[in-house]
Amino acid sequence: MNESALQQSITQQRALLTQQLGTALSDYAGRIVPYMGNAERLDECMRKAFAALDYCKYVYVMDADGVQISSTINRYGADTEARQRDRAERPYMSHIHDLAVDFQLSEAYISRNKKRPSVTAVQTIRDANGQRLGFLGVDYDLRELPHSNVMYEEPRQWRQIKGDPAIRDGLFLQHRAESMMDRQLDNVMSVHEALMIDHGVHHCQIHFSSSRSTIWHVDDPYVYRILTMDELSDPNMCLAYPRRPYFERAIVPPGDIGKVLSQFKALRFADDTIYLRYGSLNTVNGKVGLNFSCDGTHYLNWDEFLSKGLAFWFGGDSFPQAVVTADALDKVRLDGQVDALASLGCIQVNKLLYALEKGETPERLQAFTEAEREYIYRELKAVMDVYEGGVCGL
After folding, report:
1. I want to staple 58 with a disulfide (CB 3.0 to 4.6 A). Which of 52, 139, 180, 212 is the partner?
2. Are 341 and 266 contained in the same domain?
3. Any domain includes 318
4. Gene3D superfamilies per the record (predicted)?
């Protein structure tokens, strides 16, 4: 499996730390060799480590079996009770049986005492003949380590995230209730379009069910503002925000903002069971966010969102019904039906799956045997698993 963009960023940062920390620890490990048999002299040597090892919080020495033989030293003192602590089974000692490894940087973890993200570096201590004598362990607080300063970039591919199972289980017990925003949605969409094109708003989250909106302005991007229906229903509200040219960092064409908002409206009213609860648009990174009544969430680029069209979400009414002529499964024919079902759109596919999971037989599958319906169900679920949260995350 290909590494995610986030994991690639983490890997690059770990490589930087391994290079910087590994060199310093390797140099210092040679100073420790003469004192390996004397705990007091080891502690004395470890106190001097803070002048040679940048960023470290705690230092200690273990023997070749992973048992601590020095105190745990920090800049302010020593914990002598830590001597004889067996660290061999700690995650950062996973290389203890590999005699060839000289340096290991642990995965990040939450420290026991300070409850802060931390890492532990372990350097093998060897004598002049290359014989392993023990290990130098150094704990670091991630806040204090050097960083490449390269910001992780959000991936452009469609991300779909499954929501609360309790909401999904009760999906067909609910129906969309008309909100105050629903009654004035055309005016509300026009206000948002004006705010984003002419008044410096670069990001908005429109909460249809709770009739409110959250916006971020280019003049004050670290603060969000909440707009209630009293404000959104009055076009005079735009006067509260200064006129600004369309933001130079925006990648969404101004003419597409209204199209995105119109598609939000269509998804809101598409179905009384599966409907849009909130939609968001960020003109700078071009991301559209969608959250549906089943608590499925999508993040995708605005142009992909528009290119899918409403048919992708709603599907069509026509469906070529199959006629079962034999008890044996005709997988070629059934695979064709699976493809046809998948093309109906996310909402229709999920309705079929929900119904089958509840033991019901959807009208579209009445002509199939129980075994054939089970096969179709498994194949549609497999299609859903291609996505992170199911078909379109619904």
Report:
1. 139
2. no
3. no
4. PAS domain (3.30.450.20)
